[in-house]
Amino acid sequence: MHIYRRNIFYYETDRMQVVHHSNYIRWMEEARIACLDALGVCYAELEAKGIISPVLSVECHYRSMSRFGETFRVETKLTEVTRVSYSLSYRIYDDATGELRADGTSSHCFINEKGRPISLAKKEPELYERVCRAVEPES
Amino acid sequence: MHIYRRNIFYYETDRMQVVHHSNYIRWMEEARIACLDALGVCYAELEAKGIISPVLSVECHYRSMSRFGETFRVETKLTEVTRVSYSLSYRIYDDATGELRADGTSSHCFINEKGRPISLAKKEPELYERVCRAVEPES
Amino acid sequence: MHIYRRNIFYYETDRMQVVHHSNYIRWMEEARIACLDALGVCYAELEAKGIISPVLSVECHYRSMSRFGETFRVETKLTEVTRVSYSLSYRIYDDATGELRADGTSSHCFINEKGRPISLAKKEPELYERVCRAVEPES
Amino acid sequence: MHIYRRNIFYYETDRMQVVHHSNYIRWMEEARIACLDALGVCYAELEAKGIISPVLSVECHYRSMSRFGETFRVETKLTEVTRVSYSLSYRIYDDATGELRADGTSSHCFINEKGRPISLAKKEPELYERVCRAVEPES
Q1: pTM of the model
Q2: Residues 6+ apart with CB under 8 A from B95
Q3: C contact test, residue of B4, B7, B106 with most C CBs within 10 A
Q4: Would the pLDDT of A100 be above 70?
Q5: pLDDT at position D129, please?
Q6: Cα end-to-end distance, chain C, whole Å
Q7: Torsion of CA A66, A70, A71, A74, to 10 degrees
């Protein structure tokens, strides 16, 4: 499990005086990139090699509201890796109180710059192995 | 079914040269508000009356990529209404070609300004009836 | 002068219950692209030809606050065009009341895909002439 | 001078493959809030007391382009404080190379929840003094 934390930005709130729900999807991306980075997979380098990893689907369940002034914490798990795709689950908490803010999932594939699906296992076997070893199936 | 259309903004794209996936969640909100408006439910007025309608969950499946220069079209259906909640489904297309870009759902409840769940059926029976009549169950 | 209008989106507001100031900078971009389009300069096509037009500077003065439920109107003027750059001024109004929300300026250059400055006059003389004829010096 | 640093997020880039210019305005806000915080002025608390500090104007000059994978650093100076307003200047750098990305300014006033201008000097004399002592006039 990887942990990602940061302060909430003022511009992330909306007129309901809480964080706009679309920003949780962005936080999940921030957490995913930090999680991959912690596994030694530098997202910017991956793209520099022509390996792109778009989102196939996202899902988010909102449990309580986040406010400006708070720090959020995302607990990210890599739940599945195949040769051509991977999935993650996220639990977002208020860092101070531990209150669950949201939980969600995302799934991703690998494509090249022409948009064709590629196998990470073939292209980057060493990276692929490392990512595979990090998988924690959803309990 | 309600139809919502607009041009894609430059700032909605990312370095993959396509629209960032989080923006589809925002488009779903734009479409939801336009859809409610077409049913005579003005979201700004609703909030002025102290009826707030936060997002409980969202889900989005990305099918193809959107680019700057395109116009997108969202087809929105109200799929379920209860006294305290409602759900919608969305299909997002490239308006020119009809290619499916994404499909998704969102669910919402009604709360008052203190964050307590409220019954739209009780608070605004006339609105509630109108919204109920617009329901189109998912086929 | 070019006129651009649209509804304010919910997610453009912040916890102050008004539109976040950074979004005016985005509205200026939307208006600029619509303004160029009205002059027959399609921004997406320009980029497809390898002509990129980054922002050199922006400035915005906030005069009154915009709220969800309102429609804004941007009046855009092309105030200066040289062979390698151009500037615009913007006045943003509440469309219903005509109240001035903000006014600002932006300036831009032309570069190629390697980031080198290019002359629009040389690369696209016909476009350049058209844009020049549209200049309205600031009064 | 206050220093604020963070990684660039993927969703902050645009199809030009660099950070969209509107995000620098948001970075200036992040830096301003961190700068005030370092002076013992907690923005969330200020708002909880009914003291709101909207933006009167912003200005930004873009010097070079920021990319995903980089860390930016904002050097923020409080350049002027009056009883009812304050101004800041910002210099944004690539943290690794020290290359200047942008420089800008913002000015702000204080209002109450009804939108009326208020004097920080009167409302929060102790805070006001602290902020005054932090002023570094632009050289």
Answers
A1: 0.97
A2: B5, B70, B71, B72, B73
A3: B7
A4: yes
A5: 94
A6: 13
A7: -10
Q: Which residues on chain C are in Cβ contact (under 8 Å) with D47? A: 15
And the tokens for C22?
């950074």
Q: Which residues contact A79 (CB under 8 A, 6 or more apart)?
A: A87, A88, A89, A105, A135, A136, A137, A138
Q: At residue A132, does pLDDT exceed 80?
A: yes
Output the average pLDDT for chain A: 96
Residue B137 confidence (pLDDT): 79
In the sheet with D100-109, reading across from the earlier edge strand, the strands are C2-7, C71-81, C85-94, C100-109, C55-62, D55-62, D100-109, D85-94, D71-81, D2-7
pLDDT at res. A60: 98
The pLDDT value given to residue D138: 74
Q: Binning pLDDT at 50, 70 and 90, where does residue A139 land?
A: low
Do C54 and D115 lie within an 8 Å CB cutoff? no
Helix (H, G, I), strand (E, B) or coil at C78: strand
Q: What is the CATH number of domain D2-133?
A: 3.10.129.10
Cβ atoms of residues C1 and C77 within 8 Å: yes
The answer to whether the CB atoms of D62 and C52 lie below 8 A apart is no
Query: Given this model, what pLDDT does residue C139 score?
Result: 66
How far is it, in rounded angstroms, from Cα B42 to Cα B36? 7
Please list the residues that pair with C111 across neighbouring strands.
C52, C117
Cβ A105 vs Cβ A89: under 8 Å: yes
Residue C29 token pair: 């971009």
ipTM of the complex: 0.96
Point out the residues of chain B with pLDDT beneath 70. 139
Instruction: Using DSSP bridges, classify how beta strands C2-7 and B85-94 pair: parallel, antiparallel or unpaired.
Output: unpaired
Best probe of the C interface among A9, A12, A13, A15, by most C CBs < 10 A, is A15
- Which residue reads 């309608």 in tokens? B53
Residue C94: what pLDDT? 98
Report the DSSP beta bridge partners of residue D91. D75, D103
User: What integer best gives the mean pLDDT of chain B?
Assistant: 96
Work out the minimum CA distance from C136 to partner chain D, whole angstroms.
23
| Alpha helices (H) along B39-134 | 43-48, 120-123, 125-133
The answer to whether A62 contacts chain B (CB < 8 Å) is yes
The residue ranges of chain D whose pLDDT is under 70 are 139
Q: Which residues of chain C have pLDDT under 70?
A: 139
The neighbour count for residue D96, using CB atoms within 10 Å, is 11
What DSSP designation does D138 have? -
* pLDDT value at residue B139: 66
Give CA–CA dist B9/C29, Å, rounded. Answer: 9
Q: Which chains touch A (3 or more CB pairs under 8 A)?
A: B, C, D
